[in-house]
Amino acid sequence: MLEKVTDRIYYYMNNDETDRPALGLVCGNDCCLIIDAGNSPKHANELKKEIESMNLPPVKYLVVTHHHWDHTFGLSEWNVVTIANQITYEYMKTYCNLKYDDHSLEEAKKNKIFKDTSIKSIKDEIEQRENFHPKNCTLLFSGEITIDLGGITCYLRQIVSPHTDDSTIIYVPEERMLFLGDCNYGYTSQGYNYYNKELMELNINAIKQYDAKYYLCSHESICTKEEMEAYWKQLRMGAKITETCNNIDEAIMEFKKIYNTEPNSDDIFFIRSFGVGKTWGREMDLKPEIF
Ligand SMILES: [Fe+2]
Fold first, then answer.
1. For residues 278 and 281, what is the distance between their CA atoms, to the nearest angstrom?
2. pTM exceeds cut of 0.90
3. What distance in angstroms lies between residue 68's CA and the mean position of ligand 1's atoms?
4. 194, 68: one domain
5. Residue range(s) defining the domain that contains residue 157
6. Helix residue ranges per DSSP H, 41-101
7. Cα(4) to centroid of ligand 1, in Å?
8. What is the Å distance from ligand 1's center to 188 Cα?
9. Distance separating alpha carbons of residues 142 and 84, to the nearest angstrom
10. Ligand 1 centre from 230 Cα, in Å?
11. The domain spanning residue 155 has which CATH number?
12. CA–CA separation, 66 vs 158, rounded Å?
């Protein structure tokens, strides 16, 4: 079932089991816009079915927030105008040129295109992988583009992000709703999550320019402004402690000194994500995997 945010905004809940991100739906008087295509034809078709049962204006547009497979592999099922920024489009060509049988997926893993857990999810989600051919988007933009759905508008904006360099966010001013994709997550490399402090600060400052009331990060439920502020506070804690400590033990001591309590597992995760611990001193040399 679709979750209702406002009278004109819905989302289809994420599911971590097979890396399904949340998918957005913005309903105008004339037409609707979807945010992210789903991680597979199966995922896309589930959302299509939900929308068909709702008696809404037709879906005319779909925008992908970035190139990662879990946001784009459902594209083949949408017979609408599909929109991406130019960098996303270029990255997605890699996926479109691959095959998806077991052997080809192993090769893609060796080439660091997919990590192990993504391959498992792809196998779980996509039936008849021998015949699976991902589609790319057809309408490309650079910087920003605005779409009028009839009484409601979607501002698509490229944004600096610690997650990828091809992130697009979607702001709906009439409903004060901001779809963030994965743009405020870190990136993954060699099984670790990383945050780059400078990119994180630029990302937070860019997001704060929008007077949003509701935020959707792709792998969470809907967030309020207060919840976003709490998240940013935790990120900044991780960044600050990383500046002054050389290993995870020092970081835990510093945390206890500042906050007068033990760090919980989320605190440790964010401290590690900024490079403290086993990866200290070499994290910036690591290149992000495609996912
Ligand atoms: Fe992503």
1. 9
2. yes
3. 5
4. yes
5. 2-221
6. 41-52, 69-72, 86-96
7. 24
8. 9
9. 9
10. 21
11. 3.60.15.10
12. 10
The closest of 24, 23, 28 to 56, measured between CA atoms, is 28
How many angstroms is it from 95 CA to the middle of ligand 1?
Answer: 14
Shared domain for 176 and 83, answered yes or no, is yes
The CA 168 to ligand 1 mean position distance, Å, reads 11
In a domain, 255, yes or no: yes
Distance 182 CA to ligand 1 centre (A): 5
What Cα–Cα distance (Å) separates residue 291 from each residue in 102, 107, 134, 190?
A: 18, 15, 16, 11
- Domain match, 19 and 139 both: yes
Read off the pLDDT of each residue in 156-164 and give the average, rounded to a whole number. Answer: 95
If asked whether residues 105 and 244 sit together in one domain, one would say no
Q: Give distance in angstroms: CA of 31 to centre of ligand 1.
A: 27
Residues 213 and 241 in one domain: no
Q: Are 110 and 91 in contact (CB under 8 A)?
A: no
Q: Is residue 180 part of a domain?
A: yes
Specify whether 42 is located in the same domain as 140: yes
- Total structural domains within the chain: 2
Distance from Cα 259 to the centre of ligand 1, integer Å: 32
C-alpha 163 – ligand 1 centre gap (Å) = 7
Looking at this protein, which amino acid is placed at residue 203? N
**Residue 128 Cα, ligand 1 centroid: separation in angstroms?**
24
Three-point CA angle 235, 204, 260, nearest 5°: 25
Whose tokens are 């996303």? That residue is 88
In this prediction, residue 196 has a pLDDT band, given cuts at 50, 70 and 90, of confident
CA-CA distance, 291 to 196, in Å (whole number)?
17
pLDDT digits (tens, 9 = 90+) for 237-277: 988 888 888 888 888 899 999 999 999 988 888 888 887 54
